[in-house]
## 1
Amino acid sequence: MKTVGRKRIIAGLAASAAVAAPIVLGAGTAEAFVVQQVPGGTIVWLDHDETVKAAHIGLVRFLDQPGLRDHTRVHLRPESRYYKTLRPVSGGNWAVTGASRQQIVDEVASKPDGQVGVKFSGDPDNIIDVIQYWPSTED
């Protein structure tokens, strides 16, 4: 498959996920998620209840598919049980070994007030970031 065609498919899947997430999670309150514009994209932050729902239904499981995994990044809290599995890879990037994207979201859902953020960017090589957040004693 040509690179341009693959990137269009991946971009289409990411856009579909952005549209489907609120539908799959159900109609919640307006406070259930926050949309934040950041350099290079948009982050959708789910509140704790929506993060738990997303974990239970396996919302990000599709990001573990071979065609998408290479186009997603994760941002781990230093307190994450998966933080120590980070390994350097090409281009100065880091990869998580031994954990799926779904396990990373499951961990966030297990934390009091844990929230997951999903960043959608226009970069075809890195379309989606999964971001962990929970209050810690240092926050």
## 2
Amino acid sequence: MGIKDFLALLVSVIAITLSLVTFYLQRIRKKDKVIGHLISTGDVKSQGNYDQYAEYSISNIGDTQLVIKNVKVLKPYPWGFDEFTSQTNNVPFILKPNEISIVNVTYDSRHFKPENIVHIEFGIFSPNGRGYKLRHSFGQLLDSIDGQWDIFILNKEHEVS
């Protein structure tokens, strides 16, 4: 076996390996991944009972379509969380891979004291049957929580069984 035969065999092995890896990444492996970011919070004018808002960007950086089914406003208590009524725009919606959507959540601030923490929970479902609860927290007072303006990422710990 000469050097030409060896090089031809090496190139063939590399090509087969690359095609198998590409096939796996495109056809077999499916990854659910979302990045969220709090864009702004503040007062809403003339929205009835809903006088506060939180605006989020939600990006699907995975390779499966995801459904953003619901958005909840939660307040923590020692025994758990209470859910409060809120309004959101365009929810539920489908978020395709590499898409981004803006979600506006309005809620009644009378349920919260200025020092309270507000939790916004996104209910997310994937086509493979997985459900997720992605929660983000922020303070009623501007910059009252470290990292409230940082991105938050969907991962395995958010999966609901």
## 3
Amino acid sequence: MSGINIEVCSRNLLDVDDRFTGIRFPANTGHKIFRWPFLGIQDGKQVRIVGNGELLNNFNGDRVAVFLVEEANPLSLLKKVCEYYNTQRPLNLIEKSNLLKLGQKIGISKANLVKEICPILNVPPKRDVVQDLLYLQKLPETLKLYVVEKSMSLKLIKLFQRCGDDFEWVEKLIDNGRASLGVLIEIINAAWEISRRDDRVIDEILTDVGLNDEVNPDDISDIRNRLFQMRFPILSRANDRVESEIEKLSLPRNVHISWDRTFELEGVKVCIQSKKGNELHAKLKKLMEINLEPLFKTLDFAR
């Protein structure tokens, strides 16, 4: 990293650069001197620390190792900051978003963020990529942590844009409902498509299907089913007719019939659970005696 010198500074000469608050990265610490130095800007006798302010405030040693950079201009400064943190370890999307937001804060144009900063952050140098990363600043802390924990891709994170500026219900699904990433994607997509079709706000739709402050993991399946019914009303009624026909069949115990609920695949699957051979033969015989024609006619009509 050119233009950077490493020095060991007295703790009482260090302060935190207010422009860089909110950019927090883990530091590899030793006993009195950080084995991975802080990044600092020389300001007369004082040294202003870039990021890691909380770690600095909790540091009890009397000497601190610091990479000192010269603040020639905002763009060169940000480039050195990005190079420094990107050298420590791969940055997650929230950290990259923080650095781009910092660039805006210190007056760097979006064109220069695209051309000069994106390559350092290992993201495509495109304006829409910068815009998508900056959008992450709108997310509450719960969702930012979720993005990092699930290692979500930028393409997948665009899904949150369908929520507008209302993330409270997404937090309920994650915190109270313990929704997996796959389920979260399904619910957001379904709610968004319904809201667009019916010209309704998403929060109102999800309240209708049972998402409230008391939601728990056991409620998620019902919420998904109700959203499916709202999203595909004709398909849902067709599935209800198939379920009704199956209920009329008086199937033997531990015999289940399933079908493709999108009706794209033909036929049914029959699952038979038996512990003994004679039990299996008895269930097969019972199945052979059941008239399945009404069920198959219902399936054919639905398609």
## 4
Amino acid sequence: MTENKRTIKSNKYSVRYAARKHSFVLAVLVIVSLCIMALSYYCTGVVEKHLMNEIMEVRLDNLADAVDESIEERELIYNRFVDDCECKAQAIAVMIGQNPALIADEIGLEELLAVTGVDEITVADENGKVVRTTASSYDADVVLEEGFAEHADDKNFSQSVSVQRGDTDYVISGVSRRDADGILTIACSADMLRQIDEYTSISDVTSRYPLMENGITAIISAADMKYLSHTNVEFVGTVTDIPSEKLVSESGSFFCDVNGESCYVKYKNDGENIILGAVPKDEVYAGRNKVLKWLIFACVACCFAAALASRKVFLDKHKNEL
């Protein structure tokens, strides 16, 4: 009887030891699975962020090139327009030099207007005082645009300035007279340049460079931190909610809230404008999140299958002892 008790007690101890052993194996399996998930979460996150960094780098470079091209295109067109105005002014000065009677009255100037297609002609003497003009606001005391009068005695003078009168932009081109000392100026409406400005403006350049599915690209003025261009045109002219102290370096990247959404931001600062891209954090790590979901499912399934298999082996081995 005593021997049977000892046997039963020994069997119970053996079962308990085996149960603890199998529990330890299962615990190790769970811990390893958790470590694999944590490592995968970190590694896929690093890879996803690196890939997004490369995509944003290329997009920002393309955007910067587009901005430079827009500026260069506008300057080229403006310079051509100014050159054309100065050529017309020189031509009118030559015609008046050959036939001074053209400025004997306003009729001659009006004819020149019709022939040359300019908006206004003004003739001033050697003192810079207007002697004849087609300007509707003509007055005997009207003088030339600032910076022209002091060149009245310069026979090779040629200069242009941009001015705004009311709602209209003009290019004023001044040249030296050929018939006498003085300055001749013409005014050319620059409405065409305003249309060109709208075409070449950087305010909508970002619309041609979308970023991922829900990301944005934007250009910010470094002076007042206002959006000069934004994928969503409603934000153009508004102050960015990105802290200015985060955008002081020549380039960089960071996570912050943009328009109320947590985003990954990458930027380049040339001292005048800040070109940046922002992608929602969920989109940056979309691949990682998908991988993690499948990994969790796989780990849970494996642990469950291992637990069932271990339980079956344990029961089969110790069924006579239980």
